[in-house]
From TrEMBL, chain B:
This is 4Fe-4S ferredoxin-type domain-containing protein. GO terms for cellular component: plasma membrane. Transmembrane segments: none annotated. GO terms for molecular function: 4 iron, 4 sulfur cluster binding; metal ion binding; oxidoreductase activity. InterPro entries: 4Fe4S_Fe-S-bd, 4Fe4S_Fe_S_CS, HdrC_iron-sulfur_subunit, Helical_ferredxn. Residues 30-59 form the 4Fe-4S ferredoxin-type domain. PANTHER family: IRON-SULFUR-BINDING OXIDOREDUCTASE FADF-RELATED, IRON-SULFUR-BINDING OXIDOREDUCTASE FADF-RELATED-RELATED. SUPFAM superfamilies: alpha-helical ferredoxin.
Length: 153, 240
């Protein structure tokens, strides 16, 4: 686990820093995606998460879910082109999971990538992500990550 | 070129760039009815609520535009233009100037040109824009969150925690929802969306917040699809 300005970045994940997304490669060829600790901090208390339906085709860089906090709304962008094979209904019922457990219970969708190798090449590992996030947070004037009560590391 | 404030910022920005934006404001069809000359009496400032709280003055806008001071104009466009509450109290002007309307036009120019100040100023309102353009209601009770209203102290915590209970305690016309202020029919929502689209408002959003534009387009075009409408067949949608 890497730590950048109190923001957690698990070592076993890949990251798309500009869109604030993490990716976990699963054994069955699928990838699981979610929001980083930095993303949940920037959003504030999240009140809605609406992933797209299972079976939907998604393009790289396009939205797989809509996330809403008090006054902010934004897309969760997919770093992979492919099909949505699973969505996490737990975050639909209780979006605060994204604040409490961004890397565990707070996964958003699972995708079967159309071009695993090609799209994976655009992602970075934890070491490079740490350096990039340091600069990213500097640019966004974000002093540190904020963890709510019950935050799971 | 004369600048009202000699220390006007953005000295590194080319004067041609500033002039082009200035021209976009003065060429707007509404502009001729906003400015008739300024006595510099300060009545607009006295009436302005924003002037009480910020380093902001509607009079400066009238003066800068009348003097064609593109340097200070550019500074205002990147800063003070977002401090106005658009209440139009400044229309009490004895010369019938309308500084608030100058600011309306300036804001549109800032948005249309994707200026960083516009992106920053509107970032905090993305959900409000999303709400009004996808549901037809501007605010929703669930916007009452402690991290957005820290100045409300414990009150906002109590309200946010039991929001659905509070909503049930008020008249049924509110539908008792926490996601909407009131219910807007799908027909109205679709009509509104077509108006945003045809009048170029969606393009404005795209210039400012591409992510917001993307989800808005997806949500609304899915709704159009559900109703069997073709997005390019405007006449049919509006007639139905």
């Amino acid at each position: 686990m890497a730590l950048v300005r109190n923001c957690l970045l698990p070592s076993d994940l890949l990251y798309d820093v500009p869109t604030n997304i993490w990716v976990r490669e699963l054994d069955d060829g699928m990838v699981e995606i979610g929001m980083t600790d930095i993303a949940q901090t920037l959003a504030g208390s999240i009140i809605h998460c609406r992933p797209k339906k299972v079976g939907k085709k998604v393009k790289k860089g396009k939205s797989v879910a809509t996330v809403e906090s008090g006054k902010w709304v934004g897309p969760v962008r997919s770093p992979f082109a492919g099909n949505i094979t699973e969505r996490n209904d737990a975050v639909v019922n209780d979006a605060t999971i994204l604040n409490r457990s961004p890397y565990g219970e707070g996964w958003i969708v699972r995708i079967t990538p159309a071009d695993m190798e090609g799209d994976r090449a655009t992602l970075v590992g934890v070491e490079e992500a740490s350096t990039l996030y340091e600069a990213y947070m500097q640019e966004k004037d974000l002093a540190s990550c904020i963890h709510c009560e019950g935050f799971e590391e | 070129m004369f600048a009202l404030y000699k220390d006007a910022g953005y000295q590194d920005v080319l004067v041609e760039e500033k002039q082009a934006l200035f021209d976009q404001v003065t060429q707007d069809m509404r502009y001729p009815e906003t400015l008739y000359g300024c006595y510099e009496c300060g009545i607009c400032v006295a009436a302005c609520p924003s002037a009480r709280f910020y380093d902001f003055s509607p009079r400066v806008f009238a003066q800068v535009m009348a003097r064609e001071d593109v340097h200070t104009f550019y500074e205002l466009l990147n800063d003070s233009v977002w401090d106005c509450s658009q209440c139009f109290s400044c229309t009490c002007c004895p010369r019938e100037n309308n500084p608030g309307a100058i600011i309306t036009i300036m804001r549109e120019v800032a948005v249309n040109n994707g200026l960083a100040s516009a992106k920053e100023a509107l970032q905090a309102y993305s959900r409000i824009i999303f709400k009004i353009m996808s549901t037809g209601t501007q605010v929703s009770p669930d916007m009452l969150q402690p991290d957005f209203f820290p100045d409300w102290g414990q009150d906002v915590r109590d309200v946010a925690e039991n929001l659905d209970v509070w909503r049930r305690a008020i008249p049924p016309e509110t539908m008792h929802t926490v996601e909407l202020a009131w219910d807007v029919s799908e027909k109205t929502r679709l009509e509104l969306y077509m108006i945003w689209k045809l009048t170029g408002n969606l393009e404005m959003i795209e210039n400012i917040d591409e992510g917001l534009f993307m989800i808005l387009e997806e949500v609304m075009e899915e709704l159009l699809e559900e109703h069997g409408y073709d997005i390019d067949d405007f006449d049919n949608i509006l007639e139905d």
